[in-house]
Amino acid sequence: MEILAFGVQTDERPVLETAFDGLRPVRCLDVFMNRDTAPIAAGHEIVSVSVNAELGAETLRVLAAGGTRMIAQRATGFNNIDLAVAEELGLTVARVSYYSPYAVAEFAWTLAMAVNRRVVRAATRTRDFDFRLDGLMGRDLRGRTAGVLGTGKIGEAFTRIAHGFGMRLLGWDIAENPACRDLGMEYREDLPGLLAEADLVSLHVPLLPQTEHLLDRDGLAAMKDDAVLVNTSRGGLIDTEALVGELKAGRFTGVGLDVYEAEAGLFYLDKSLDVVADDTLARLMTFGNVLVTSHQAYYTREAVSQIVEATVRNVEDYLAGRSGENFLVPAFRRTG
């Protein structure tokens, strides 16, 4: 029986097909998993889904009723999955707990540098043969303060680059990373205090109930008026409506967002001919100091290859009746 893979990008398709060769055939679909598309999986024991899959209770029940027994998510975060319902239905759920942290960290810096040095505005001008420098002045980063929220593998990689720029390092996390400490990072328990000191704030924490809207109206207000804010983790970490309010007040040198809290149903799709129904996102796009990309920070050859390899191992473990380290809901005994 073939594996059905949802939300497969064009560049990802040959990597998936090659990786699963010899294990089970895989059929790749460009549609994303949600309540409306779940019936497509009927008759498929194993499905693989992308980071933007919507795996709430209703979707999971449709999958289970159709015979699906294993969900292999090609992503690290799992805030999109109702794990309690999955376990209740006897669905095995696995994720990818690790892939190249450099992919995301380097892209976070790409966004930071782009908004700081007004790269998008400059590129748009020069395409029109407008070579003025008005409004393009950036700032040196050397000697300024980087605030890193979340200092796991990705946060550490981001910190190493900040250290290379010669920046002062502030960190916030539930546990300190000795490698970041060795680079000179000062950890702060007081998040508003860190935000008030940082010239650049980058988010690298998972989206959990306790981190949702980590940067709410008060948190954003605590930041410097000329700070740079970057989010390559999860959109729900920032209260977007509050962010729009701060931007309308003329605050922040630049904001780089690779994620958005209402991105499901938008990101990875061509909506260029559609009416934009999301007023918050539409308003966000109007600010010249904001750069929004479509959840692509992870999208390098190295990271995608590692994600696919981990997904194959997860399926192998499931077929063998093992519960590997990536399993969020343990492998249930297979009936066939």
Automatic annotation (TrEMBL):
Residues 110-297 form the D-isomer specific 2-hydroxyacid dehydrogenase NAD-binding domain. It comes from the Bacteria. Pfam families: 2-Hacid_dh (PF00389), 2-Hacid_dh_C (PF02826). Residues 9-326 form the D-isomer specific 2-hydroxyacid dehydrogenase catalytic domain. Keywords: NAD, Oxidoreductase. InterPro entries: D-isomer_2_OHA_DH_cat_dom, D-isomer_DH_CS, D-isomer_DH_CS1, D-isomer_DH_NAD-bd, D-LDH-like, NAD(P)-bd_dom_sf. Belongs to the D-isomer specific 2-hydroxyacid dehydrogenase family. PANTHER family: 2-HYDROXYACID DEHYDROGENASE HOMOLOG 1-RELATED. This is 2-hydroxyacid dehydrogenase.
